[in-house]
Design goal:
This protein is mainly β. The protein is built from no helices and twelve strands. A six-stranded mixed beta sheet has the order 2-12-9-4-5-6, with no helix packed on it. A hairpin with a 6-residue loop joins strand 4 and strand 5.
Length: about 120
C-alpha cells in the first residue's frame, strides 16, 4: 500500500485548500477510503470516509458542512476539499485505507501539513 498526500499549506482563517492522495500498490476502487489528521501533541483523528463508488460519505462533526471528500477511481486519487478553514484544523493530514483494532490507523504516507493562522 502506497499513499502520497499533497496540497497542504498555510492559509488564513476562512481560506480553502484541496488535498490530494495518490494511491498505488492495491486496487483503489475496491476500498473505502478515509482522511485522518493529527494535530501536534494529539493522537490521530478521523475526519471523513468515502465508499468505493463515492456515493456514500461520512464526516466528523467538527468538519461537517465545511469539508468535502471525493475520489476519482480512474486516477486512483482521493481528495479533500476544505473550505472555511479554522485554526483548529491545523494538523498533518493523511489518507488511510486500513484501521486495525489493536494499533489504530495505518498511515503509510508522509502526510501533508495544513496550517491555519492569521
Amino acid at each position: 500500500v502506497q499513499l502520497v498526500e499533497s496540497g497542504g499549506g498555510m492559509v488564513q482563517p476562512g481560506g480553502s485548500l484541496r488535498l490530494s492522495c495518490a494511491a498505488s500498490g492495491f486496487t483503489f476502487s475496491n476500498y473505502d477510503m478515509n482522511w485522518v489528521r493529527q494535530a501536534p501533541g494529539k493522537g490521530p483523528e478521523w475526519v471523513s470516509s468515502i465508499a468505493t463508488d463515492g456515493r456514500r460519505t461520512v464526516y466528523a462533526d467538527s468538519v461537517k458542512g465545511r469539508f468535502t471528500i471525493s475520489r476519482d477511481n480512474a486516477k486512483k486519487t482521493l481528495y479533500l476539499q476544505m473550505n472555511n478553514l479554522k485554526p483548529e484544523d491545523t494538523a498533518l493530514y493523511y489518507c488511510a485505507r486500513d484501521y486495525f483494532g489493536t494499533t489504530g490507523w495505518y498511515l503509510p504516507g508522509q502526510g501533508t501539513q495544513v496550517t491555519v493562522s492569521s
